[in-house]
Amino acid sequence: MNALFDLRDRVAVVTGAMGLLGKEHCRALASAGARIVVTDLDTGAAPALVEELMALGAPQVLAVDADVTDPENLLALRDGVRANFGGIDVLVNNAAIDDKVESPASALEESRFENYSLRRFRRALDVNVTGVFLASQILGADMAKAGRGSIINVASTYGVVAPDQALYRTPAGEQTFFKSPVYPTSKGAVLAFTRYLAAYWGEAGVRVNALSPGGVANGQDAHFVSSYASRTLLGRMAYPHDYRGAILYLASDASAYVTGTNLIVDGGWTAK
């Protein structure tokens, strides 16, 4: 069984790699022996992550600054991967914006659907949807030419079900803000794109799947954590490392006959 999850001699590119889950995706791939390309808008803090990944088992790690909405950036990334590793076997499209209102004082009114700005909507769509399209097109084309590869598009449970706006209320019942319309819209689009690309590149030997994580504990206030946990069947929010197994499964030969699917890892949130 170990051979099914072995990623030695595989090259994996992770976008948005410096984020909370991006780092965890890299750790999962490193532990299976993959050579990893860490890419984000700013990889200035990457040396510590690079050292950690190599200690976990990655024989080589390359850190590259790249904007997933900029085709020239992605072409340069692709050329760098070709020059250093020869090709790409795994692409994790993790880069995304989870839209947040900067000012707590205006958060409620700015996040109302009726007031939500077109600028915010377009910005998040550009990263969350166009970024997945461009990275897949530019980096995935090499996989299709090689006749093999795995693309993992990170979506969300909010691409499957509607946000529960009651989560964003205080214990007294006061709504502090609303989850934005663009996040579920963009993640739903990622799921549709995943199915499209799986069908398009199936004959080329490239598998394309989505991973839909649930909410991750990351310093939220106790009331939110408790409210979220009560909505799940397992009674808790996810730990950041809870997604390592899913990433490794989708990246490796363990999922050799899996494509076009959405792997939901949410503690039972969407089953309730």
TrEMBL record:
The keyword Ubl conjugation does not apply. Keywords: Oxidoreductase. It comes from the Bacteria. Gene3D superfamilies: NAD(P)-binding Rossmann-like Domain. InterPro entries: NAD(P)-bd_dom_sf (IPR036291), SDR_fam (IPR002347). Pfam families: adh_short_C2. Belongs to the short-chain dehydrogenases/reductases (SDR) family. This is SDR family oxidoreductase. The lineage of its organism: Bacteria, Pseudomonadati, Myxococcota, Myxococcia, Myxococcales.
